[in-house]
C-alpha cells in the first residue's frame, strides 16, 4: 500500500496513471483510494476514471468520476472544484446546520452556471460524477450518472439504506450535459450517520460490471463487506477479485471509516 503525500487535497485521473493490469490501494489521511485500470488481455487499453478528495477538521468531500471517450470531462469537473477549493472549505467549516444547505446550493450554482456549461460543451466526452460530503454526523450526496454511494455496516443482517443514491445512465456532465436539458437528471440527498463507526464507499460502475461480479447488488456487496476486517481490506479484496475475473472496465473506489 502506497501512502499518499500529506497534502490538503488529492486529485487523480487515468491519464496521469492508468493502473492497467494493476491493483493499487493508497491512503490519504484516513481516506483510501482503490484503483484497477482493467485487464489488457480482456480489452482494457485506457483508464477514463478520476477522483478528488478534500478534507477538513470534521468533514470530507470525495468525488468519483467515470468518463467516456476521453478522461477530459472528468478532469474538467475535478479542476472546476479545485479552483473553488477555498469557497468549499469556507462552506464546510461552518456549522453543520448551514454547511450542508450551502454546499448543495454551491454545487447547483456551479453546475448550472453559464460559464461552467459553456466550457463543458467544449470538452471531448461526458462523465458520470458522484460527490459525497460527510460533515459532522451527516452525509450528503449529489449523484449525476452511474456511480454508486454505499453506507456499509458490519452486520450481515442489516441491508437497509445500503446504497444511498440512484444510478441513471442518461445524466452526464460534458459535451452532452444534463444541465443543458430542460429537466436535468440527477439525484441528491442527505442522511444522519449512525452512532459508532460508519463506513462510506464511493464506486464507479465498473465494480458492478465485470464477469460474475459478486457486487452487482447492494445487498451482495454488504454481505461481502461483512466478511472483511476493515474498509481498506474490503477495497483491496474487491479490486483483486475484479483483476482475477478479468474485468475490462476500470474501477475506482474511494472509502473511509468515521466514528460518530
TrEMBL record:
It comes from the Bacteria. This is PPM-type phosphatase domain-containing protein.
Amino acid at each position: 500500500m502506497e501512502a499518499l503525500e500529506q497534502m490538503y487535497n488529492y486529485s487523480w485521473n487515468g491519464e496521469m496513471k492508468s493502473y492497467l493490469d494493476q491493483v493499487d490501494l493508497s491512503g490519504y489521511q484516513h481516506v483510501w483510494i482503490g484503483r484497477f485500470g482493467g485487464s489488457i488481455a480482456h480489452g482494457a487499453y485506457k483508464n477514463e476514471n478520476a477522483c478528488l478528495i478534500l478534507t477538513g477538521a470534521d468533514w470530507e468531500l470525495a468525488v468519483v468520476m467515470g468518463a467516456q471517450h476521453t478522461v477530459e470531462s472528468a478532469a474538467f469537473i475535478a479542476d472546476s472544484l479545485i479552483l473553488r477549493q477555498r469557497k468549499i472549505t469556507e462552506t464546510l467549516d461552518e456549522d453543520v446546520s448551514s454547511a450542508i444547505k450551502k454546499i448543495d446550493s454551491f454545487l447547483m450554482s456551479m453546475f448550472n452556471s453559464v460559464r461552467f456549461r459553456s466550457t463543458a460543451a467544449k470538452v471531448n466526452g461526458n462523465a458520470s460524477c458522484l460527490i459525497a460530503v460527510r460533515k459532522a454526523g451527516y452525509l450528503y450526496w449529489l449523484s449525476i450518472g452511474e456511480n454508486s454511494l454505499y453506507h456499509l455496516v458490519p452486520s450481515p443482517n442489516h441491508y437497509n439504506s445500503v446504497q444511498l443514491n440512484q444510478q441513471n445512465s442518461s445524466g452526464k456532465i460534458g459535451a452532452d450535459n444534463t444541465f443543458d436539458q430542460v429537466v436535468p437528471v440527477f439525484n441528491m440527498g442527505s442522511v444522519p450517520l449512525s452512532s459508532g463507526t460508519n463506513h462510506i464507499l464511493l464506486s464507479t460502475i465498473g465494480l458492478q460490471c465485470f464477469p460474475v461480479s459478486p457486487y452487482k447488488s447492494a445487498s451482495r456487496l454488504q454481505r461481502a463487506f461483512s466478511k472483511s476486517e476493515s474498509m481498506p481490506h474490503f477495497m483491496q479484496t474487491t479490486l483483486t477479485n475484479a483483476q482475477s475475473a478479468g474485468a475490462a472496465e476500470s474501477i475506482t473506489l474511494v472509502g473511509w471509516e468515521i466514528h460518530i
